[in-house]
Amino acid sequence: MTKEQGKKAVIADSSVVGMISDSLSTPSGCLFPYRNIATGETDADSIWLIITTFWRAVQNVFPEAWGKDPVRSRLTHGVGIRSMGRLMDRVMPGIHLRGPKAVARVEDELRMVEPVCHWTSGRWEGLGDMQWNELQNVPRHIRILSNLLLRTYVQARMQAE
Questions:
Q1: pTM above 0.90, yes or no
Q2: Which DSSP category does 9 fall into?
Q3: Which is it for the CA torsion 4, 54, 90, 98, positive or negative?
């Protein structure tokens, strides 16, 4: 990547690498089964399909927050990328990736958390009424945002059943 291309990037490489690394190294991560720890082999094609399917759905469900500079959107900020990565770990095992409606199915799942998300304005009521832009890319904020998203998702899934 050239210096000029790096300036155009909206999402920091380190946030994406951290999100992928978390999922690959945690047994509950959706990418974990695609890495053979004993042989060091990785099914990169499946991993790529999971990641692109999930994030395409994120882009579709949160278009107002997608593609913006992290100063203007906490979705593209490290805290959003890492927290949504943890939600990806919960959502993606139930998605038939090769199915024609994989992205649409993920969108349906993401809509369960949409009401609590304040990526670009407002207050995170589930986080003690924090302003949308108070969230920072620090372990505590990643943990509390991840917890809010996962709790909301699990509760919505239980109500839907």
A1: yes
A2: -
A3: negative
Q: Give the residue extent of every domain in the chain.
A: 11-160
Closest of 54, 108, 126 to residue 85, by C-alpha: 54
Give CA–CA dist 109/93, Å, rounded. Answer: 12
Residue 108 near residue 91 (C-beta atoms within 8 A): no
The beta strands (E) that lie in 77-129 are given as 123-124
Taking only the tens of pLDDT, the chain with its 161 residues reads 455 554 567 899 999 999 999 999 999 999 999 999 899 899 999 999 999 999 999 999 999 999 999 999 999 999 999 999 999 999 999 999 999 999 999 999 999 999 999 999 999 999 999 999 999 999 999 999 999 999 999 999 999 88
Residues in the chain: 161
